[in-house]
Amino acid sequence: MQINGRTIGLSERPYLIAEMSGNHNHSLDRALEIVTSAAEHGADAIKLQTYTADTITLDVDGPGFTIEDENSLWNGRRLHELYDEAHTPWDWHKPIMDHAKSLGIDCFSSPFDASAVDFLEELDVPAYKIASFESIDLPLIRKVAETGKPMIISTGMASVVEIGEALRAAREAGNEQVCILKCTSTYPATPENTNIRTIPNMRDTFGCEVGLSDHTMGTGVSVAATAFGAVLIEKHFTLARADGGVDSAFSLEPHELQQLRDETERAWQSLGQVTYGGTKAESGSRQFRRSLYVAEDMAEGESFTEANLRSVRPGYGLAPKHYDVLLGKRVNRALTKGTPVSWDLIA
């Protein structure tokens, strides 16, 4: 899978997406500043969300249209009101995308209905993201897949069957460029509920690249996910959590995004290959291993004893595993203290 020529896969460091969501706080200037900061602190892409309150929900007060969950950041909020507050005005999309392009990072979006896909196609976005709650919206997935653009599908709450259905919809529409994201749809999420051991299983089960949509605090879960093969990391991003906003409480700040970039890259670099016996880089350290040395001056014909045969550093003599074999063996020449022991010294 590629986005704007950048390979998304195990051969490259994780692709980092900074999710702006509603952290612009109704200010285009702030939105542009978020893009600048994301680019400066290591993001590969900035992601938007393309909807209006009316395209994502209904303006009613009936059951289910108000959040009633004491553990939710948005407890008591009407869905229509919340989405109206959080949405990114559609006329902001082009200036935000143009600014991202000028800074050398990608910018794309999550569409929430067919009209959003049509709009984003007019802007020629390089990729699409399907949000977790929309991963069961197969008509939307088919609509996006038909664009031929790379797709990222978040799988929060989705069963194996539902993930399979989403991928089948994309593939039957002719799109094989799909990456799925392990995701826990709580805000914020806890590390205990993230279950990143699922990532390699998802790759084996569904035959596609797998990343992480991470709603936990900090960067530790994303770094660990990299070790399990996550090729893409998405984190919400803000200039400062103290500024508030619908998603600010679980968003990274700039210095944390830079840490995410640095540490996921280190984690990816550390994966390497299955190897034993030391690497080329370690070759210079072999001299510091222990080996067998003459510990006292010895006369020709004298036998090795516990006093004159020692396992010490450096490592130019025989391996210590030969110590018991050598005890009692006579030497064929006079040896000085500090001589590395070798088989040709034995009578």
UniProtKB/TrEMBL annotation:
CDD domains reported in the protein's UniProt record: SAF_NeuB_like
Pfam families, sorted: NeuB, SAF
InterPro entries: AFP_Neu5c_C_sf (IPR036732), Aldolase_TIM (IPR013785), PseI-like (IPR051690), PseI/NeuA/B-like_N (IPR013132), Pseudaminic_synth_PseI (IPR020030), SAF (IPR013974), SAF_AFP_Neu5Ac (IPR006190), SAF_PseI/NeuA/NeuB (IPR057736)
Every AFP-like domain range: 291-347
Protein name in the entry: Pseudaminic acid synthase
Species of origin: Blastomonas marina
Gene expressing this chain: nueB
